[in-house]
Each structure stands twice: as C-alpha cells, then as structure tokens.
C-alpha cells in the first residue's frame, strides 16, 4: 500500500492548525493567547510527526532518500524550532516564518507527489544513515532560521530601527546550528570509513558541505572579534546561507558533480 | 574573551603595517599567498604527490616543532601575535574557502573522468600549490591560536581546545597520512585463490594476504513496474504510482490504466508460451498482469529477463508499454577464505557497510559483475590500509565533543 496517498489529509490538518495560529495573532491580546498560539502550532507539528512516523513504518526504511522525503522532515523540524524559540524568547515573527516555510514545503510536496519506493541501496543501510541525515536537516533548518533573523536585522539596520537582540538571537541559532552541522559532517566521515573505505574523499557534496561549514566558521570568528560591528556580521551570516543553499540545491547541477554519492534520488 | 577584547578597542586611525596587524594586513598577506601559490603552480606545472613514510613523519615533526618554537620563544613577537589572531584566522579560512569553491565547482581529475590538466591547477586543486599553501597557512594560524589557549592551562577553555585542537589533529594527520594511505582492489572469481591486487592506476602488486571467493550472495528487492516510452526508451517517473514495486495481488491506477498483479514468480524462465518457476542459474522475476483501460482489457506475462532468459513487456499503444525494471540490490556479500602469509587461515563474510579486518587491512565489498546481477561469479573487493587513521579519529572525537559543547553554549546564552 502506498502511504503517500494519506499525505494530503495530514498536510491539510497541519496547514489548518498553522493558519489558525497565524490568524489568532491578528486578534487583540488576551492573557491565554500565547498558550493558544503554542497549542495550535504544536497540533500542526504533531500531525506531520504522525505522518512521518507512519510513512517510516510502512516503508520499512528511513524516509530520507528522496527530496520529497527530506522536505517532509523540514516540515517537522522548522515548526519545532519556531515553537521552541517562541516559547523561550517570544519571537512571533520567527514562529510565523518557520510555520510559513513548513507550509511551503508541504505545498511543494503536495504538487509533486513522491513515488513510493521501498528500495534502499545497501550502502545506505547503516546505523549512521538516520543520525547523519537528521542532524543535517535539523542544522539546515536552524541555520535557515538564523539567516532570516540576519535578513530581518539588515532590514532593521538600514531603516535605522535595529536592536541588538536580533544578532543575539541569530548567534544562538548559529551556535546550535553549527554544532549540529559539525556533528553531521563528522558522522558522515565515520560512516564513509565503514561504507566506502575512506572518511573523506572530496566528493563534490563533501566539498560543499565543508564550504558551508567554513562559511559559518568565518561568521563565528568575525562576530567574536568585533561584536560591535553589526553590519559586517549580518552580511557574513547572509552570505554563509547562500553557500548553504548552493550546497543543498546546487551541487547536482555543477560541472564537478560527476558521480557524487550524494545526489538525491528522484524516484 | 578578555585578551581579544583588549586588542579590540576602536583605535585611532592606524597606519597600514603598523602593529598590531588587523584585517587589512591579513587580507593583503593571504592575497599574496594566493599569488605565490599560482606563480609556483605555473612555473612548476606539476601536481604534488603526497609523500609517504618516513618523509611525512619528518615534515610533521618539523611543522610541530616550528609551531612550538614560535609559541614558546617568540610568543610576544607582533608577527606571532598576529598569526594567532582572529583576523589571520579569518583570512586563512577564506583562503581555504576559495580553493574549496574551485574544487567544488570545477570538474576535478580524480572525480570526473576525462578532465584534462590545466596551467593553474584548477582541475587538480587537491594537489596544486595554492591549496597546499592555503592549508599550511590555515594550520599555522590554527596551531598557534590553540597553543595560546592551552598554555597556561585553564579549564574554562576546554570547549575551545577540543574544537581547535581536534581540527588541527584531524587535518594534520589527514594530510600527512594521505601519503601512507593504500587503497587497492582485488577481482575475486569463484574458487580461485588471488594474491595480487590492483592499484588505482591499474598496476598489479603482490599482497601478503590472499582471498578465495567461495560464493557471492545477493538479495534483491522485488522489481518495479513502470510505463516506458518505447520510441525513446525512457521510463516515466512522475506521479505517485509511476514506479510500483511488484506485490502479488496488488492493484493500482496509473494514468488511464487500471493495473492488477495476478501472479509473481521470483525465479522463473521462459519456456514455450509463458514463464515457469525454476530453481536454476539465470532465473529472472516475472509477473502476470492485467491491464484495463477504456480501449483495452488484457492479461500478459512480463519479465525483466536476465542473461539466461528473455525479457517481455506489454505494449499498450504505439508509444507506451508496461515494463519490468531490473530488481535493485538489497544486500550483497562475499563468503571468502582468507590466507595470510604468516600462516593464518580463516573464512569470512565481507558485506557492504560491514568491512572485515585482517592484519591491519580493512576489506570492503565493492562491486560485482552487473551483467549477471545476483548470479555474478565475480566479486570485487577493496582493501585499505591507513596507518594514520587512529590519529585522525582522535581529532574527530575531540570535535564531536566540541560540537556538543557548542550546542549547549548556544542554548545557554541568555538574551
């Protein structure tokens, strides 16, 4: 049975709850509103978590092989990041951004239905597969959030209404995101040694993953040295995200791609 | 934080090259290094080969002694202070970043077949002068910054040291160790004892270990059904049911067709007018399917075939046909007997993701004869020795702990 046919039910449920969460913010503040926002955002996330869990058990393999499957994970992780940051720091716009992004991922998945494929090549059948991919997706989601914070910060900076809390938030997201990015890279190295004979082979995707890592490394150092130079830090962070996007989408199309082991499967 | 911030006061206008050096000087120096790298590359026109033992040990020792001398005897020299500063680090990271962008974007000789060498080394960045120099500069700034935080030792610096020292150890050992890395392949045919291996360039070399393939085993997934364009031989991959793994009794819709799988044989051969269950070499999967649409209602046997039996598809129109794709491998492994020169003799199973260790070598299942699929009589294994691996792993594990530290540090900072 093809479990993807149930996708639209779960996705619509999630979209419905997230829409309520966003509409609620238009209503004048009441005391219980924060709680309601968190409740509806979480219900939507829960719907996607249940679908992903069910899809996983029906496939009999981790759903992390196709682009459609990775989009599903972003639709799970982004709302969680939004909910946690809202709960902790009350950033409504970040919550809305993460819910909005998750909605976009769901809509793309709805318009490009994934084929249902139980096959998983032997090299991917490893205990490292799940941690490697999950940690990466989670870190990309965090770093994407940090980049939105930086764009928002740049906008505020140029309009003269900048407050330093934006960069502080971005910094927190980058540290956590960079930690997970490092874990993803290192898990990948340990896995590669077991599956392909060497921990680092300069596969184009590996090279671009290292580039992403170096990009955020520059941001961390620049920010550390001159915490007062806001504009430089904001621009660096935005540039680092451009490298990340190239790494995620671009590598398949580059002349260097050759026979990369990391190209996402379309089937 | 304290040391860095005291150097960080917004000073009155400083002349270029006046100490302490900052971002401008760092940018000029790393740009100079880039130019030097390309000049060296153009004049030597070679790709640099990794050096093996004992020369790599010597280079490593000289490099580390150099860092220690700089640190302990010239700690307060303005150049050494600059080398361990953030601006120098950022310029070094940028230099490596530039080389990595070239490597990640342009086709590389070791990755894309048929790439021609060029004057600037753009097609072999990994072994070109600019990249070697960038790595050297990177490791120098990293090493000195790490030493500065380690002496005198303070426990509050543990996260910094794990991340920086871990990276230094992993990278240095990885670069120096590449000269001692041995990766060979061996072609094993059933019941033949093989002592020789092939290098990447195809040269035969004798090995101290021999392998005898007893059997090659493969499990496959059930094959998939797909709609093919028989004029172009393309498979349609769009849509939820475009590629459907065969399961007896399954029925589904694709485009305007209602498809039902009436029967499925995992091992069959074509005889006379249909496919029959057999238990012999070269057997192929076959399925009896029913297809209904507005214009047709038919039942037929289809099969992906094999080297020993013919394939069949079901033609639906002048353009379209339902075909069975070759089954994908689920797992494959080689049962081998292993003979070591010192007299050891054992049998082992080598499987993808489960390498087998013998006398300092790791042995990997690499490939097989794809024409014969699960009936392959050939198994290709890869045999790898990397004596520097424990040092690289030591660095990697330090960085793993360091990454966890970063995650908690990010979480902990109050707003």
UniProtKB/TrEMBL annotation, chain A:
It is a multi-pass membrane protein. It is found in: Membrane. The keyword Transmembrane applies. Pfam families: Cytochrom_C_asm. InterPro entries: Cyt_c_assembly (IPR002541), Cyt_c_biogenesis_CcsA/CcmC (IPR045062). The keyword Transmembrane applies. Residues 19-255 form the Cytochrome c assembly protein domain. Coiled coil: none annotated. The chain crosses the membrane at residues 6-27, 34-56, 71-87, 94-113, 133-152, 173-192, 207-224, 231-251. Keywords: Cytochrome c-type biogenesis, Membrane, Transmembrane, Transmembrane helix. Its main location: membrane. This is Cytochrome C assembly protein.
UniProtKB/TrEMBL annotation, chain B:
Residues 155-370 form the ResB-like domain. It is found in: Membrane. Its main location: membrane. It is a multi-pass membrane protein. Keywords: Cytochrome c-type biogenesis, Membrane, Transmembrane, Transmembrane helix. It comes from the Bacteria. The chain crosses the membrane at residues 26-43, 55-74, 86-107, 119-138, 158-176, 388-408. This is ResB-like domain-containing protein. It comes from Flavobacterium hungaricum.
């Amino acid at each position: 049975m093809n479990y993807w046919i149930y996708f639209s039910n779960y996705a619509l449920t999630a979209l419905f709850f997230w829409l309520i969460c966003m509409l609620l913010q238009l209503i004048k503040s009441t005391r219980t509103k924060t709680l309601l926002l968190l409740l509806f955002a979480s219900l939507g996330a829960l719907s996607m978590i249940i679908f992903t869990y069910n899809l996983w058990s029906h496939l009999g393999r981790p759903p992390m092989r196709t682009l459609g499957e990775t989009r599903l994970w972003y639709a799970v992780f982004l709302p969680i990041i939004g909910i946690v940051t809202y709960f902790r720091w009350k950033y409504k716009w970040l919550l809305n951004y993460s819910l909005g992004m998750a909605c976009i991922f769901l809509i793309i998945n709805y318009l490009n239905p994934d084929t249902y494929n139980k096959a998983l090549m032997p090299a991917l059948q490893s205990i490292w597969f799940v941690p490697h991919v999950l940690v990466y997706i989670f870190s990309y989601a965090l770093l994407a959030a940090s980049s939105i914070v930086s764009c928002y910060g740049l906008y505020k900076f140029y309009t003269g209404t900048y407050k330093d809390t934006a960069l502080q938030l971005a910094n927190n997201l980058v540290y956590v995101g960079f930690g997970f990015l490092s874990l993803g890279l290192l898990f990948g190295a340990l896995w590669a040694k077991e599956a392909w004979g060497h921990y680092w082979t300069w596969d184009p995707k590996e090279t671009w993953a290292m580039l992403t890592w170096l990009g955020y490394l520059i941001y961390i150092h620049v920010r550390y040295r001159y915490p007062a130079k806001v504009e430089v830090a904001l621009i660096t962070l935005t540039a680092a995200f451009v490298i990340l996007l190239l790494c995620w989408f671009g590598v398949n199309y580059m002349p260097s791609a050759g026979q990369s082991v990391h190209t996402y499967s379309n089937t | 934080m304290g040391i860095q911030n005291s150097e960080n006061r917004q000073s009155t206008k400083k002349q270029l090259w006046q100490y302490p050096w900052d971002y401008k000087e760092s940018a000029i120096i790393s740009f100079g290094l880039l130019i030097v790298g390309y000049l060296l590359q153009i004049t030597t026109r070679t790709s640099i080969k990794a050096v093996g033992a004992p020369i790599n040990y010597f280079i490593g020792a000289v490099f580390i002694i150099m860092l220690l001398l700089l640190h302990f005897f010239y700690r307060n020299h303005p150049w050494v202070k600059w080398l361990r500063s953030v601006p120098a680090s950022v310029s070094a990271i940028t230099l490596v970043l530039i080389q990595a962008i070239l490597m990640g974007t342009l086709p590389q000789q070791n990755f894309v077949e048929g790439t021609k060498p060029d004057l600037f080394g753009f097609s072999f960045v990994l072994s070109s002068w600019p990249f070697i120099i960038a790595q050297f500069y990177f490791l120098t700034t990293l090493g000195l910054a790490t030493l500065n935080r380690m002496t005198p030792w303070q426990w509050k610096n543990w996260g910094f040291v794990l991340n920086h020292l871990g990276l230094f150890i992993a990278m240095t050992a990885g670069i120096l160790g590449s000269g001692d890395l041995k990766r060979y392949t061996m072609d094993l045919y059933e019941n033949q004892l093989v002592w020789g291996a092939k290098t990447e360039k195809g040269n035969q070399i004798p090995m101290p270990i021999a392998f005898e393939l007893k059997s090659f085993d493969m499990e496959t997934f059930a094959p998939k059904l797909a709609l093919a364009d028989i004029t172009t031989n393309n498979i349609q991959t769009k849509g939820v049911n475009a590629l459907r793994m065969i399961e007896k009794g399954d029925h589904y819709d694709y485009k305007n067709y209602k498809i039902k799988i009436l029967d499925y044989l995992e091992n069959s051969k074509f005889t006379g007018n249909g496919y029959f269950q057999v238990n012999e070499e070269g057997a192929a999967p076959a399925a009896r399917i029913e297809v209904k649409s507005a214009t047709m209602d038919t039942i037929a046997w289809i099969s992906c075939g094999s080297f020993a039996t013919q394939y069949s598809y079901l033609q639906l129109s002048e353009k379209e046909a339902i075909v069975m794709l070759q089954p994908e491998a689920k797992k494959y492994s080689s049962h081998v007997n292993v003979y070591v020169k010192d007299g050891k003799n054992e049998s082992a199973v080598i499987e993808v993701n489960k390498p087998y260790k013998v006398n300092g070598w790791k042995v990997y299942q690499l490939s097989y004869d794809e024409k014969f699929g699960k009936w392959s009589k050939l198994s290709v294994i890869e045999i790898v020795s990397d004596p520097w691996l424990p040092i690289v792993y030591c660095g990697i594990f330090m960085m793993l702990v360091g990454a966890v530290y970063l995650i908690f540090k990010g979480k902990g900072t109050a707003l």
